[in-house]
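pasting for the record
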Amino acid sequence: MARINREGTGGMKRILGTVLACAALAACSEPAPSPSQATTPRADPSTAAVVTDCGTFDLPQGEDLPDSAARCLVEAVRAGHPAQLKVTRPTVEGDPIPVSYAAGADGRVEVITDSRQDGFGAQVVTRQTCTGPTAAPELRFAECSDPTS
């Protein structure tokens, strides 16, 4: 039995030594970034454009986008400022359809519609490039490219 204790003690010392070595290495390394902390390359901060956030809206059945949100995007486009707006509307059956609007400084707006959750639709993500936004009463565009998947 004494022999078992010595081997057990020696084994415990090896395990403890390994654990301490791993802890020391972990303490010296940088933690892996979580998705919310992940860094992305950025342009020179002095030249980076500020993106106007016009809001994120999860609209219930029959509700319209607030006028202020549509006006925010239109005014940003007219001023040549980048802006974003995210709107989720339900289909007639209640399936959520998120649409994101990303306005560039050039006045073009990329419209991405995600209908993958539509149980009765095409279930695809489409992109369009649109120009000439107006906010009367809903967000509308003078011209849009054909949707591409």
